[in-house]
Design brief:
The chain is of the alpha+beta class. A three-stranded antiparallel beta sheet has the order 1-2-3. The protein is globular and about 50 Å long.
Length: 68
């Protein structure tokens, strides 16, 4: 059995202009990985899927409040 490899992606709002972006791999069981798109060979952060969802929910909430 071969372990699955992370499938990295960036936000659909990211551009190819080399901005400040992160890449996320959420295809692995039990973990979400996050890394700097400008340092792909560097370290990545690992989050439990529930913690990652909580972070995204909080970021969306903060973003919606900042827009008002």
């Amino acid at each position: 059995m071969t372990a699955a490899a992370p499938r990295w992606r960036t936000s659909t709002r990211s551009t190819d202009s080399g901005g400040n972006c992160v890449e996320v791999a959420d295809n692995l069981p039990g973990v979400v990985l996050v890394r700097d798109s400008k340092d792909r060979s560097g370290p990545s952060l690992a989050f439990a899927p529930t913690a990652w969802r909580s972070f995204l929910d909080a970021a969306r909430e903060a973003s919606s409040h900042a827009a008002h």
